[in-house]
Design goal:
The protein is an alpha+beta fold. It folds into two domains: about 160 residues, 2-Layer Sandwich (60s Ribosomal Protein L30, Chain: A); about 160 residues, Phosphoribosyl-aminoimidazole Synthetase, Chain A, domain 2, CATH 3.90.650. About 30% of the residues lie in helices and about 25% in strands. It is built from ten helices and 15 strands. β6, α3 and β7 form a beta-alpha-beta unit. α7 runs parallel beside α9. The longest helix has 18 residues. The protein is globular, with a radius of gyration of 19 Å. The relative contact order is 0.17. The chain binds cobalt (II) ion (2 copies). One cobalt (II) ion binds next to β10.
C-alpha cells in the first residue's frame, strides 16, 4: 500500500494535480447508455436460454444467475465507468463498491472479482492508476472478497470497474420481478449523488457526504433484507430511483405509489439542482418514464427522484431495519408509478 502525504506519493508524483473528471466525456452520471436505447438494441438479439439460467436478460435484472448444482447458483456481473470524482483513490473505491452492489442486489455473496481498466497511459501517470486500484482493493477487503487480476487496455478515456462473481442460494434470490402488491418499498441510501457529482465535475467543489455514500457497501442492506424474508430488490444506479422502480414494477406486473416526501436526500442535493447541476442522464431517465408517471409534483421534484445514481442503495420491496419506507407496491394500474 502506498503511503501518501498531501497527495504526494512515494514516487514523487503529485496525485492531486489531476482532476480526473475532466478526462471523462459524461456529465458525472456514470455514462450509462440510456435505458430505452439499450432495450431497443437488445430486442433484436437471439435469446440464449438454459434451464439453469435462473435470471437472464429478460427483465433487466442486476446480474445473471445460473444454477451450478442443487442449492448453489453463481451470480455474475460487470460494471465500469469513467471518473465520477477527481480523486483517484475515491474513484477506485466508488467503482468497486458499485460493481459489488449488483451481487448484493441479487441476494448474493461476492466470492471473487477482477479489475477492468481503460487508461490513457500517454496522458495520465501510472501512479495515478495505482491509486485507483488501491481504492478498489480496499473495497475488496471491506467486502471480504479477493480482487485477483483483471484486464487493462490503453484507452483515451480512463475507465475503471470490476467483473464480480458471487454465490447465492437459488431459493433466496432477490429478483426484480417478484414485487407483490401490499408490500412497502424501502430505500437504503439517500439520493442526490448524481447532482453532487455533476457539480463537483463542473466546479471542483468536493462533497464528502456523496463519496461516503458511494463507497458504502450494500452488504448489510442485502443481509437485512434477506433476514426479513424479502424476495424483490434491486440497486438504484444510473437509471435513478424512478427508472429502477419502473423496471421493477414492469417486470413484476404491478404498480407503485411513491411518497416523494419520504425519500431522503444528501445534504446539498437540492441546492445543486437549484443551481442547475443536472446531468443529461438524469433528464433522460425522467423522459424515459414520464408517460408512466401519474403525479402532480413539479418538475424539480421529479428530477430529484430521477437523479442518476452511482453506487446507490438498495430499493427493497419489504422492510429493512433503519431504512425509510418511501412507498408501496399496489396492483397494476393504468400508470406504473403514482408519485405523490
Ligand atoms: Co443494478
Ligand atoms: Co450494474
Amino acid at each position: 500500500m502506498m503511503p501518501r502525504m498531501n497527495g504526494i506519493d512515494t514516487n514523487g508524483i503529485d496525485t492531486t494535480a489531476y482532476r480526473l473528471t475532466q478526462f471523462a466525456h459524461g456529465g458525472g452520471c456514470a455514462c450509462k447508455i440510456p435505458a430505452g436505447e439499450l432495450e431497443q438494441m437488445l430486442s433484436g438479439l437471439p435469446a440464449v436460454t438454459s434451464p439453469d439460467l435462473l435470471v437472464g436478460l429478460e427483465h433487466g435484472d442486476d446480474a445473471a444467475v445460473v444454477r451450478v448444482r442443487d442449492g448453489l447458483a453463481v451470480v455474475s456481473t460487470a460494471d465500469f465507468f469513467t471518473p465520477v470524482v477527481d480523486d483517484a483513490y475515491d474513484w477506485g473505491r466508488i467503482a468497486a463498491a458499485n460493481a459489488f452492489s449488483d451481487v448484493y442486489a441479487m441476494g448474493g455473496r461476492p466470492v471473487v472479482a477482477i479489475n477492468l481498466v481503460g487508461w490513457p497511459r500517454d496522458v495520465l501517470p501510472m501512479e495515478l492508476l495505482r491509486e485507483v486500484l488501491r481504492g478498489g482493493a480496499d473495497i475488496g477487503l471491506a467486502a471480504g472478497t479477493p480482487i485477483a487480476g483483471g484486464h487493462s487496455i490503453d484507452d483515451p478515456e480512463p475507465k475503471y470497474g470490476l467483473a464480480v462473481t458471487g454465490v447465492v442460494d437459488p431459493e433466496r434470490i432477490l429478483r426484480n420481478d417478484a414485487a407483490r402488491p401490499g408490500l412497502p418499498i424501502s430505500l437504503t441510501k439517500p439520493l442526490g449523488v448524481g447532482m453532487l457529482n455533476n457539480r463537483h465535475k463542473a466546479t471542483g467543489e468536493s462533497f464528502p457526504q456523496a463519496v461516503a455514500s458511494m463507497v458504502a457497501l450494500n452488504d448489510t442492506a442485502a443481509r437485512d433484507a434477506l433476514a426479513a424474508g424479502v424476495e424483490a430488490a434491486t440497486d438504484v444506479t444510473g437509471f435513478g430511483l424512478l427508472g429502477h422502480l419502473f423496471k421493477m414494477v414492469r417486470a413484476s406486473g404491478v404498480s407503485a405509489v411513491l411518497d416523494a416526501a419520504a425519500v431522503p436526500y444528501l445534504d446539498g442535493a437540492r441546492e445543486a439542482l437549484r443551481d442547475g447541476f443536472v446531468s443529461g442522464g438524469t433528464r433522460r431517465n425522467l423522459e424515459w418514464v414520464r408517460a408512466e408517471i401519474d403525479s402532480k409534483l413539479d418538475e424539480d421534484e421529479l428530477l430529484l427522484l430521477a437523479d442518476a445514481q452511482t453506487s446507490g442503495g438498495l430499493l427493497v420491496v419489504g422492510e429493512v431495519p433503519g431504512a425509510p419506507i418511501v412507498g408501496e407496491i399496489v396492483p397494476r394500474r393504468h400508470r406504473a408509478l403514482n408519485v405523490r
